[in-house]
């Protein structure tokens, strides 16, 4: 099969959606499929797939731009610049199938081609809104196959769309427990480290984490990520966590070392579509504190420290419990999250979708 994966952040950002789809693309290419990846970053000599660079303007440029449908955020502005260049640089009709999780502009760019248009696979990495809503730009959504990355999305969409339930995962060869020197990240040796891997945006609730950590005197909060709220969070941390907060921006290769330099993993989103970071943290042996939902329990099981993270006293108690957990065996849910097995499911679903056409 000839498959095109397209996303503005490919080879440019190390975020959940980029990591997930690139990992699938790499494994499918290794399995013998003819895979092309279109993104705005630089070509990598290590990739098994073919890379096509499609320029886009970074979302940071648009942080102060007006928001309105369909330009609902800085990511939509970035997506529009990428989609315009994608239509000029890539002939989608030369592929059997296209894959993206970016809506609306990249999605629309991949749907062109008339009767010769390839089968289009949409992945719900950033939510299921395009598939379930009939308002504004969402009413122009359609696809040949919908990959649902959690059981909630699958239950909602399986009657309307050709669906497959396929989780995200992690590179279990890279994300594993090992000794890591905190000094390389400028982290203290004499305090427990609570790690967040999170964008500085409202839905990630980093400010709420800072307020909770202010009640735990002997712990240090480090956040790996960036985003428009970086200055507000830094100012709050300077006031509430003096000497106990650090923001880092790291390469993908450094992330396993950072996980292994921490004692606890904390994630504050109330409704995460999946959250690769949960699997990465578990694979490195970290206890996980997160918002208690059936969706998250489907990922991490019943072995972690889930709670109502909007209840600050309960959140503080859960962080303390996780910090006191000590060494324990790796989470028993890990086995199903290796990328080779997940990519095999993608390959089978794309092949079935093509056969169904």
What does this structure look like?
The chain is α/β, with parallel strands linked by helices. The protein folds into two domains: 2-169 and 338-356, Glycogen Phosphorylase B (Rossmann fold, 3-Layer(aba) Sandwich); 182-336, 3-Layer(aba) Sandwich (Rossmann fold), CATH 3.40.50. Helices cover 33% and strands 16% of the residues. It has twelve helices and 13 strands. It has helices at 16-30, 74-89, 105-110, 129-132, 151-157, 206-213, 230-240, 255-261, 276-283, 294-300, 312-323, 339-356; strands at residues 2-6, 34-39, 50-53, 97-100, 119-123, 145-148, 163-165, 192-197, 219-224, 245-248, 264-266, 288-291, 305-307. Helix 4 links the parallel strand 5 (119-123) and strand 6. The chain is globular, with a radius of gyration of 20 Å.
């Amino acid at each position: 099969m000839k498959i095109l994966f397209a996303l503005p952040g490919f080879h440019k950002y190390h975020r959940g959606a980029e990591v997930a789809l690139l990992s699938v693309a790499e494994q499918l290419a290794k399995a013998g499929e003819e895979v092309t990846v279109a993104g705005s970053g630089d070509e990598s000599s290590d990739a098994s797939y073919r890379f096509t660079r499609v320029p886009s303007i970074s979302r940071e440029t648009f942080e102060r731009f007006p928001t309105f449908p369909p330009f609902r955020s800085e990511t939509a502005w970035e997506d529009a610049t990428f989609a315009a260049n994608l239509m000029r640089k890539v002939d989608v009709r030369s592929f059997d199938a296209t894959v993206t999780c970016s809506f609306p502009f990249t999605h629309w760019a991949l749907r062109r081609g008339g009767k010769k248009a390839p089968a289009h696979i949409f992945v719900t990495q950033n939510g299921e809104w395009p598939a379930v809503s009939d308002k504004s730009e969402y009413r122009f959504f359609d696809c040949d196959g919908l990959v649902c990355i959690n059981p909630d999305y699958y239950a909602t969409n399986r009657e309307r769309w050709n669906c497959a339930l396929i989780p995200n995962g992690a590179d279990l060869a890279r994300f594993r427990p090992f000794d890591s020197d905190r000094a390389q990240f400028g982290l203290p040796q004499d305090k427990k480290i609570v790690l967040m891997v999170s964008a500085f945006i409202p839905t990630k609730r980093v400010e709420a984490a800072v307020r909770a950590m202010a009640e735990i005197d002997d712990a240090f909060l480090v956040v790996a990520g960036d985003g428009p709220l970086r200055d507000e969070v830094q100012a709050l941390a300077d006031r509430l966590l003096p000497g106990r907060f650090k923001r880092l921006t790291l390469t993908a290769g450094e992330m396993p070392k950072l996980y292994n330099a921490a004692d606890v993993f904390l994630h504050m989103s109330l409704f995460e579509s999946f959250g690769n970071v949960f699997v990465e943290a578990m694979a490195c042996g970290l206890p996980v504190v997160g918002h208690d939902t059936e969706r998250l329990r489907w990922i991490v099981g019943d072995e972690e420290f889930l709670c109502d993270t909007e209840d600050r006293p309960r959140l503080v108690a859960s962080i303390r419990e996780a910090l006191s957990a000590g060494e324990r065996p790796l989470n028993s849910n890990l086995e199903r999250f290796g990328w080779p097995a997940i990519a095999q499911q993608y390959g089978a679903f794309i092949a079935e979708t093509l056969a169904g056409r």
